[in-house]
Amino acid sequence: MDKKFPYLIILVFGSLALYTSCANMGMPSGGAKDTIPPVVIRSIPQANQTNYKGDEVRLYFDEFVVPEKLNEKFVISPPIDKRPIFRTKGKSLIVDLNGAKLKDSTTYSLDFKDAIVDNNEKNPLKNYRLAFSTGPDLDTLRVVGFVLNSFNLEPSAGTYVMLYKNLSDTAVLTTKPDYVAKTDDNGFFAVTNLPKATYNVYAVTDNDNNMMLTSTAEPVAFLDSTVTPSAKYFPKQDTAVVGMDTLLVFGKTRFYPNPLYLLQFEQPFFDLRLDNETRPTRKYVDLTFTQSVKDTFDIQLLNYEPKGNWKYIEHSANDDSLRVWLTDSMVYKKDTLKFRVTYEQQDSTGVKYAYNDTINLYFSDAPTDKKRGRRDRRKIEKKDVNVSLSLNTRSNGFDVYKNVSVESPEPVKSMDTSMIHLFVKQDTVFNPIDFKILPDSINKRRFFIHYPWDYKTAYRLKIDSAAVTTIYGAVSDSVENTFVTQEEEHYGTINFAIQNVTGPTIIQLLKNDDKEEVVRSKTIYKDGTVEFPYLEPQKYKVKAIFDRNDNGKWDTGNLEAHVQPEEVFYYPEVLKLRSNWTMNPTWQLSTQEVFKKDIVDKEKQEEEAKRKKKERNSKAF
Q1: Who's near 162: CB < 8 A, 6+ residues apart?
Q2: 351 Cβ neighbours under 8 A, 6+ residues apart
Q3: Residue 246's pLDDT band (cuts 50, 70, 90)
Q4: Taking 90 as the threshold, does the pLDDT of residue 538 lie above it?
Q5: H-helix or E-strand containing 617?
């Protein structure tokens, strides 16, 4: 064998190793990410085609597509009797009308929203519509607008907007609409390709998907007047068209009416029932109802006849939850209790009647441990006859505008006020001071200590042992609590100068979050200043409610009575309040309906501007 042959083999394999190592230095780049949505190349029928007689619609794309929640988002107007079937084939999407017969000489509009996406990056084809006619003419009128939640003016997404040629007030309850659209995430809707006619307009959250308002539990909105869409041709395009007007202008044609605003509300409806019943302890029963049972509730014991009053009922703020304290020991010592609960019900004709519900509730004491010593048993016995009072104080920063709340775990039968003491720290000594004791008008387990607290001052509350006796004969343990009030510089104040007040108006100060919890609320009847003192340093929203019936709260609408919900407005700026600061904003309430919730947070805007500037500077280098 040639001696050069082994060297030749080594040279070949060495070259291969060098080649492969160079080839594997890094993975090849896949190029820029695809951000382009699919493009419709053609369709059957063609866009705006007339005299179409087919039973399906086909869309052809420049790439493979998939439906993304198409069953939820797709809308065909006028609505058809059956739900379409969607399927893909190659680079096409097929809308099978599922045997539904299209009406003669009718223009149909198919709205796909953003439910068609490409197969790779899921880029959506946004706001795609296809219109065609089964007759010789194509209808081109439109009605656009927004659906908003009437209580907080937030967009109402996924709501059907329904147009009826039948102008009867009951049409929305009995028949499907002539034309329909669905709102997007911004609450925007567009009912397109309409013939000229006069319509009633409704917005319905169609929970049962039957294209009608079938339950008072379904949120609804309605226009007070009918709508007759029209269009006007302008020989020259209006270059001043901006903002909302762009929704109404197409080419050189302007569409009417102006954008509609529908304020959706939940109607008052009767749905009272016992939702839950429990007996957490031997001494009380908790009953939870779906609605208020104020003035309609009664409870009777069926498996025992007590000699006297055997109960005390504690109501929640909304009267939809009740705690029935069993005050008779012969009653609460029973493991099994059978009750007849009476509350109001309503028959199919709307007539209310007293309904009796029978419930059985059980309670069993935890098994006792026979190995416990005498000292442990004494502790248990003491726990049964003594109760601990709870306070709402905190060691530092107690709010000067609050009362001290004292709460017993059981209803209070009696209280010896001479055994309750309040002291104020002066120099280094706590001196006794006079104060008031106020009972809670709702909760029999709670009372308040009232005193005009000074800023940044130490107080001591002392409650002697047995100062409070409960309805079960238990006495309270002693309580001694020292707390320091908040300093004056901690708080801020907002003094709102309100103008254009035309009637009872509720001004609410809200937390700056999605829940918009009410912090303070005042009703005014004329122009003036609304003062909100002792405020925490934080951000706030401000809301106005036109309280038409002057009952101190926001009222929803009523479709049957043709009553719109009470109007609400928001101050257009988030207020950032600092400690030791007084804000004096002026708010001119609008004399016209305003359907906006454009609340500017200047601090966020400034932060966003700084962030963008920082990004631009970093890219420049």
Answers
A1: 172, 177, 179, 180, 201, 202, 203, 204, 211
A2: none
A3: low
A4: yes
A5: helix 602-620
Which tokens is 28 given?
């090849």
74 and 45 together in one domain:
yes
Amino acid at 241: V
Count of domains in the chain? 5
Least confident among 14-28, 95-109, 116-130: 14-28
21 located within any domain: no
CB 259 within 8 A of CB 246: no
For a pLDDT cut of 70, what percent of the chain falls above it? 89
Residue among 223, 212, 204, 225 nearest 156 (CA): 204
pTM listed for this prediction: 0.83
Beta bridge partners of 583: 494
Provide the token pair at 292: 């208020």
| Contact by Cβ (8 Å): 62, 91 | yes
* 11 vs 256: CA distance, rounded Å: 84
CATH no. for residue 413?
A: 2.60.40.3710
CB-based contact 435:451 (threshold 8 Å): yes
Q: How many residues does the chain have?
A: 621
CA pair distance 149, 203, nearest whole angstrom: 11
Write the CB contacts of 435 (distance below 8 Å, at least 6 apart in sequence): 422, 449, 450, 451
- Compute how many other C-beta atoms are within 10 angstroms of the C-beta atom of residue 10: 10
Co-location of 256 and 146 in the same domain: yes
- Other residues' Cβ atoms within 10 Å of the Cβ of residue 484: 17
Residue 8: per-residue pLDDT: 40
Q: Give the pLDDT of residue 442.
A: 84
C-alpha torsion 209→212→213→215, nearest 10? -50
Predicted local distance difference test score (pLDDT) of residue 595: 82
Q: Rounded to whole angstroms, how far apart are CA atoms 322 and 288?
A: 6
Where among 264, 289, 305 does a domain terminate? 264
Q: At 233, which CATH number?
A: 2.60.40.10
Q: What pLDDT was estimated at residue 107?
A: 98
pLDDT tens for residues 304-328?
Answer: 998 889 999 999 988 999 999 999 9
On whether the CB atoms of residues 53 and 25 are closer than 8 A, the answer is: no
Q: 169: number of CA atoms within 13 Å, CB side?
A: 8
pLDDT of res. 317: 87
Q: Are residues 178 and 127 in the same domain?
A: no
pLDDT tens-digit profile of 543-561? 999 999 999 999 999 999 9
CATH, residue 358? 2.60.40
Residue 612 maps to a domain: no
Do 105 and 166 fall within a single domain?
no
Predicted local distance difference test score (pLDDT) of residue 586 = 96
Flag whether 129 is in a domain.
Answer: yes
Domain that holds residue 223: 141-264
Q: Look up residue 448 and give its two tokens.
A: 């308040």
